[in-house]
Amino acid sequence: MSRYRGPRLRISRRLGDLPGLTRKKTNKNSPAGEHGQQIRKPSEYSLRLEEKQKLRFNYGLNERQLLKNIKIAKKVQGSTGIILLQILEMRLDNIIFRLGLAPTIPAARQLVNHGHILVNDKILSICSYQCKPGDIIKIKNKLNSTKLVQTYMNFPGLASMPNHLEFNKEKLIAKVNGIIERDWVALQLNELLVVEYYSRK
């Protein structure tokens, strides 16, 4: 499994606010690097590439995973861009993040990998698991699991919880009630440009 280990603020300065990657904020407005200060008109290709990179870094995917999800989205009837966002939003690591159980998606991924999360009463360590309506998500009933999640919940990532999720803070039990709608996706993104980027390859 690939993971981005480089400077995160540098990426968010270049691509804009990425809530899934980091919660840190910077006072600098221009992109990082010596050429960040130069103002130039971006080409059509660079606009498409930028939108694709936003998806990759926010959800923590590598190129192969994103391409695989694009192919799945193209086979489903409907708008490919919206279906792609729904596939990415219904990943287990993203749902943990959206519930406020982790401050970022990498932190949520670590919770899943270390076996702290139960889905339908089974320990699941696959971050890319596609959650379905009706799935019950719990925290493992162990002291270190609940303590870690309680620490994370004191510093939540996003303020608003999407309407397709239901969460009981006392019992630490969540339920997926449906598929996320486009309006609830927290990322500022033009998904059509991502589809265009891959259609020209």
Domain module tally = 2
CATH C-level class of the largest domain is: Mainly Alpha
The CATH homologous superfamily name of the largest domain equals Ribosomal protein S4/S9, N-terminal domain
Helix content: 40-55%
Low-confidence stretches: none
The average pLDDT is 83
| Helix count, DSSP H or I runs of 4 or more residues | 8
Oligomer: single chain
CATH topology of the largest domain: Ribosomal Protein S4 Delta 41, Chain A, domain 1
Alpha-carbon distance between the termini?
A: 24 Å
In the CATH hierarchy, the architecture of the largest domain is Orthogonal Bundle
Gross morphology = globular
Percent in strands: 5-15%
The main β sheet shows up as:
5 strands, antiparallel
Widest β-sheet, arrangement of strands: 2-1-3-5-4
Kindly state the number of beta strands.
Answer: 5
Gyration radius, in Å? 17 Å
Class derived from helix and strand content? alpha+beta
Order of helices and strands: HHHHHHEEEHEEH
Keywords for this structure?
single chain; 201 residues; alpha+beta; Ribosomal Protein S4 Delta 41, Chain A, domain 1; Structural Genomics Hypothetical 15.5 Kd Protein In mrcA-pckA Intergenic Region, Chain A; five-stranded antiparallel sheet; 5 strands; 41% helix; rRNA binding
